[in-house]
Design brief:
Blueprint: E1 3-7, H1 11-23, E2 28-33, E3 39-40, H2 45-49, H3 55-58, E4 59-61, H4 63-68, E5 72-75, E6 79-83, E7 88-91, E8 96-98, E9 101-104, E10 108-110, E11 124-125, H5 130-139, E12 145-149, H6 153-164, E13 168-172, H7 185-197, E14 201-203, E15 208-212, E16 219-222, E17 227-229, E18 232-235, E19 239-241, H8 253-256, E20 273-275, H9 296-314, E21 332-336, E22 339-345, E23 355-362, E24 367-374, E25 377-384, H10 390-399, H11 418-425
Parallel strand pairs: 1-2, 1-9, 2-5, 9-20, 11-18, 12-13, 12-18, 13-14
Antiparallel strand pairs: 3-4, 6-7, 7-8, 10-19, 15-16, 16-17, 21-22, 22-25, 23-24, 24-25
Helix pairs in contact: 1-9, 10-11
Length: about 425
């Protein structure tokens, strides 16, 4: 019996496992996760931190789920290395498994820059896992001030949740922009105002150079010499792909530092190894411009293709191989300071004159909207505060509808979305 091993159990790994089972009912499938929990929604971690959700609410595939699918779920075990010559996966405890095909979906993790002193102290935490969340929850009763290093979505969600716990919260960013991968200048100003309303201090254009304390975090030092007392430092910057276990595996050591490079089949240079999700090399041009923004939706799409091609490899049926197409509808939904938010397609305008960006902010109603155009077709949509137009814009992007009739009115807050629905109902523009 052929054995497919999947390293990682988040969006890409989970989707790869259930796709492989759908394609082959007899294939032996093993999913390896270094976490003890089943597959869960990382974007809901802030909800648990805020006490709006319980752990069980964010887990969507536990051990029983995998048992029903006849998938071996190996939880709480960390892969130490793989041997691509002998097709071995070796764990930290030196036990090993033999694979016929392997899908690497190990994601990425926070990594404090090596130039920062004291990074190993207790209280320096990421915000990407249930383990991170547990560490924060345990420290909260004995903490007063939390510093969030990085202006990404997860860090801002953590900031909002901790502020509701009546903690003093400071957000530190190296530049002067918040969520630049999603927001334009209007959106950044909108979000900065929301931070101020929540009494969350924003410290811009600064970096952390030192972390003080004996074994626990007590304070941080910025590159301008300022020292800030804090009990918890949540790092939401400098994320690196989880590829350490691939050292001395047969992959080019320099290549895997930036993530695994793959071809259009999500196949690495080693024929029986595929990859999907955040572990991929984000600069890989074969994946296309629209696919550069990380999202759950994209990771699932990649996991599905990686699984299909791994099964095709095992069955020696090249005619069944599927090309991974960059996702036009790259969906991400979340909450930002109690405001619903949605991102579709491209979230940042490329440096290309063919693309155009439109946006508006209404501070009174707490609404922000951004639309990215390529010519007369919508390729990206971001909305905060009012996401009712999500489905309409999703269809406009998917169908690549010509919006020349309504372009000048798109960002008018009083614009009648019924006109957009009429465009969708018309034949797709050539």
């Amino acid at each position: 019996m052929k054995h497919l091993i999947i390293i990682g159990n988040s969006a890409a790994g989970h989707k790869a496992a259930i796709t492989a089972r759908e394609l082959d009912s007899s294939l032996k499938i093993s999913v390896i996760s270094d976490e003890k929990a089943g597959a869960y929604s990382r974007n809901l971690l802030a909800g648990v931190l805020e006490n709006n959700l319980k752990f069980r609410d964010i887990v969507f595939a536990d051990e029983k789920f995998y048992e029903q699918k006849n998938i071996q779920f190996i939880s709480g075990k960390k892969v130490e290395k793989i041997n691509t010559n002998k097709n071995w996966v070796t764990f930290i405890d030196k036990t090993r498994l033999v694979y016929d095909a392997l899908i690497v979906a190990s994601g990425m993790s926070m990594s404090v820059p090596k130039c920062v002193k004291g990074a190993a102290k207790h209280g320096v935490i990421g915000f990407r896992s249930i383990s991170d969340l547990n560490d924060i929850i345990q420290l909260m009763p004995i903490s007063h001030t939390v510093c969030i290093w990085g202006g990404g979505l997860a860090g801002l969600q953590a900031a909002a949740a901790l502020k509701k716990k009546r903690m003093e919260v400071k957000v530190i960013i190296s530049g002067d922009k918040l969520m630049p991968e999603i927001l334009d200048e209007n959106g950044e100003e909108f979000l900065k105002n929301r931070l101020a309303q929540q009494e969350i201090e924003l410290i811009a254009e600064k970096n952390i150079v030192d972390i003080f304390g004996d074994s626990d975090v007590k304070a941080i030092k910025l590159d301008n010499g300022k020292v800030i007392a804090c009990d918890i430092l949540i790092v939401n910057t400098n994320f690196l792909p989880n590829t350490k276990f691939l050292d001395e595996s047969g992959f080019d050591p320099e290549a895997i530092k930036q993530g695994l490079a793959v071809d259009v089949f999500l196949q690495t240079k080693i024929p029986n190894i595929f990859a999907a999700g955040d572990v991929l090399e984000v600069s890989d041009k074969t994946l296309g411009l629209i696919d550069q923004a990380n999202s759950w939706f994209k990771a699932e799409a990649q996991g599905k293709i990686a699984a299909a091609n791994a099964v095709a490899f095992l069955e020696k049926k090249d005619e069944l191989k599927a090309v991974y197409e960059p996702q036009r509808i790259n969906v991400a939904e979340s909450q930002i300071f109690d405001l619903a938010a949605v991102c579709l397609g491209i979230t940042r305008k490329p440096d290309d004159p063919a693309f155009e960006e439109l946006s508006f902010v209404d501070e009174e109603t707490n609404v922000y909207k951004k639309i990215i155009l390529c010519g007369l077709k919508i390729v990206g949509f971001v909305a905060v505060g009012n996401t009712q137009e999500r489905d309409i814009f999703s269809q406009l992007i998917e169908q690549q509808t010509d919006i020349s009739q309504v372009k000048d009115d798109l960002i008018d807050q009083d614009f009648n979305s019924e006109l957009l629905k009429q465009l969708i109902a018309k034949p797709i523009a050539a």
